[in-house]
Specification:
mainly alpha, Arc Repressor Mutant, subunit A, 2 domains, 9 helices, RNA polymerase sigma factor SigV
């Protein structure tokens, strides 16, 4: 496939799914301005490394990985962690999520280590399969399963307390 055709496919895909990637980045930084910077940087990185995308069928997990890595890089540089602002998050929601707010769950999720929280967000909030989460985070499927189990166990303990 020609590079120009691939650029068009990737660009159209990102435009069509921009809200999903915004929500994902926002789940890490909890700040609208920083989120926009991360999404913009992710798009820039994607277009620079477009030749690494061998199969256009994997655009979803490929771009998820770029957004997650860019978000984590930003957090490492800023060394900031924000609580979830549910009002803003709901503002950008596509409406397919539950309509009730579970503040306890959001707080418990924020208390999880980033590795665990990333897995829970990608699996349950973004609806990715275990294999896709492993691809996005560049980890072994069994590692993802183990961390997911541990994260859910920690969430359960936290919510039962």
């Amino acid at each position: 496939m020609r590079k120009k055709d691939l650029e068009t496919i990737v660009t159209n895909y990102i435009i069509d799914n921009k809200e999903k990637y915004y929500r994902l980045a926002y789940s890490y930084v909890k700040n609208p301005d920083d989120t926009l910077d991360i999404v913009q940087e992710s798009i820039y990185k994607a277009l620079l490394s477009i030749n690494k995308l061998k199969n256009p069928d994997y655009i979803n997990t490929w771009f998820y990985r770029i957004v997650v890595n860019t978000s984590l890089d930003y957090l490492r540089k800023q060394k900031k962690v924000y609580l979830v602002d549910t009002v803003t998050l709901e503002k950008y929601s596509d409406g397919i999520h539950d309509s009730y707010q579970n503040v306890d769950l959001l707080r418990a999720l924020d208390d999880l280590p980033v590795d665990y929280r990333s897995i829970v967000v990608l699996r349950y909030f973004e609806g990715l399969k275990i294999e896709e989460v492993a691809n996005v985070l560049n980890e072994n499927v069994n590692t993802i399963k183990t961390r997911l189990y541990a994260a859910l166990k920690k969430l359960k303990i936290k919510l039962d307390a």
